[in-house]
Amino acid sequence: MTLDPQAKAILEQIAKSPLPKLHQVPAGVARQMFEISCKLTDLKDVPIGKVEDRTIPGPGGDLPIRIYTPVAAPAGPLPVLVFFHGGGFVIGSLDTHDAPCRLLANEARCLVVSVDYRLAPEHRFPAAVDDCLAAVNWVAGHFAEIGADPMRIAVGGDSAGGNLSAVVAQMTRDAGSPKLAFQLLIYPATDALHEGLSRKANAEGYMLDQDLMQWFFNQYVGHLGLEDLTDPRFSPLRHKDLSKLAPAHVIVAGFDPLRDEGLAYADALRAAGVPVTTAEYPGLIHGFCSMSGVIEAGRTALVEAAARMKEAFAKA
Q1: What is the set of active-site residues?
Q2: What is the Cα–Cα distance from 38 to 18, expressed in whole angstroms?
Q3: Class of domain 5-315
Q4: Domain parsing of the chain, residue ranges
Q5: Which tens digits make up the pLDDT trace of 189-227?
């Protein structure tokens, strides 16, 4: 595999930077650094029909959400994607993933409800899981209030958000409601103990390196014992039953440590009879979909993902 030239340019800029790495600073500083980074690399001035910030009841108090209505929204209740941002459960916010949410809303012609779930280390596992599940249940219970179609609810997110999407899809299936129409898993973390070759081959120099992964890991689940890491609420690939889950679209990047576990989850879903499509981007790095302003393949991946989601909504 050969690195995408635009991804390579980003990595070269990072290598030359005198700034400390995210795992070398306190979580609060890392969040500020990530906010700045996203502003530099995301799509600019993506039009949107309407944006509404509000709070809903959450397990830990008020839970901020942001609701996106697409440009030229069709009449009637709209399908809805409940979106969980990436950032290792430690960094990321509504603002860092504003551009991808706008693009997905417009391309899939759906509402997007982005969730500002609680972050570690202030709020460790399973706080993020609890918040994301609460948000999906709120959308299902307040569909008329936001103009959503309760029969066409999807979950999606990137990296940690992909993990949370897979987990919530399993939990709602196990609970019997709400019934989801789709899950969008963008380079998801699916197994804390996975031993795929990509973890070793891409351990250094490709955005999400081993030291940063370990730092995220320690902030979110460092309080757990080894046996707890097989909990499907953190390692969804280890759930004993993957049948009857919502159709999924899984995006992976060739130079991403999480590549193999993303593909393994897609394979496991297929083996369980779940409709799955995969999109592999061999020359790309972790996080490329959030860098669509400087990596063209990021926008391509999101547009393709929106098309798969739109197809799933049409069948629901």
Answers
A1: 159, 256, 286
A2: 18
A3: alpha beta
A4: 5-315
A5: 999 999 889 999 999 999 999 999 999 999 999 888 777
